[in-house]
């Protein structure tokens, strides 16, 4: 989505249509695992950290929760284009080349996005837009600084 000042937003949310039943436990567990993996990536997103290290933190958290590795990068730069180039927050896979080796820089904006398939229930997908800041991470909301 392009905002009025010319910059883009790129978020993803998961919704469940109410059916009168409680949210199944396996859906709640998957949602928490995705959220905790995104938080692990946000914790690693500090000035000077290479993109592959940010991805590795989130990937390890999701796998430790019992889910398979996602088959894409954790995130990308966000600016006047939705995929604004620069450092990619992804694994050291050949298809990403050197884009994951660069450091993230203070005040850059990145997406942190991943999800898992919950058999019989669908896909849990979450994506946050974050601003890289030095110092302690603050908050856990979309559009927040990290």
Characterise this structure.
This protein is α+β, with helices and mostly antiparallel strands. It has two helices and two strands, in the order H-H-E-E. It has a two-stranded antiparallel sheet. Helix 1 packs antiparallel against helix 2. The longest helix is centred in the N-terminal third of the chain and has 20 residues. The chain is globular. The C terminus is likely disordered.
Structural class: alpha+beta
Q: Please tally the helical runs, counting DSSP H or I stretches of 4 or more residues.
A: 2
**Largest sheet entry:** 2 strands, antiparallel
Strand order of the largest sheet: 1-2
Question: What percent of the residues sit in helical stretches (DSSP H or I)?
Answer: 10-25%
What separation lies between the terminal Cα atoms? Answer: 21 Å
Gross morphology is: globular
Instruction: Compute the average pLDDT.
Output: 86
Unreliable runs: 139-146
Number of strands: 2
Top keywords for this entry?
146 residues, alpha+beta, two-stranded antiparallel sheet, 2 helices, 23% helix, 14% strand, globular, disordered C terminus
List the helices and strands and how they pair.
Layout: H1 25-44, H2 51-64, E1 109-118, E2 122-131
Antiparallel strand pairs: 1-2
């Amino acid at each position: 989505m392009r905002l009025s000042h010319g910059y883009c937003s790129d978020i993803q949310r998961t919704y469940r249509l109410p059916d009168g039943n409680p949210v199944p436990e396996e859906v709640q567990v998957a949602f928490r695992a995705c959220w905790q993996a995104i938080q692990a990536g946000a914790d690693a997103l500090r000035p000077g950290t290479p993109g592959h290290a940010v991805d590795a933190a989130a990937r390890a958290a999701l796998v430790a929760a019992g889910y398979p590795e996602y088959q894409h990068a954790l995130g990308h730069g966000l600016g006047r284009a939705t995929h604004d180039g620069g450092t990619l927050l992804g694994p050291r896979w050949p298809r990403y080349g050197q884009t994951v080796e660069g450091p993230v820089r203070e005040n850059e904006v990145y997406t942190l996005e991943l999800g898992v398939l919950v058999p019989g229930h669908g896909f849990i997908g979450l994506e946050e837009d974050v601003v890289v800041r030095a110092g302690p991470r603050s908050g856990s909301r979309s559009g927040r600084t990290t």
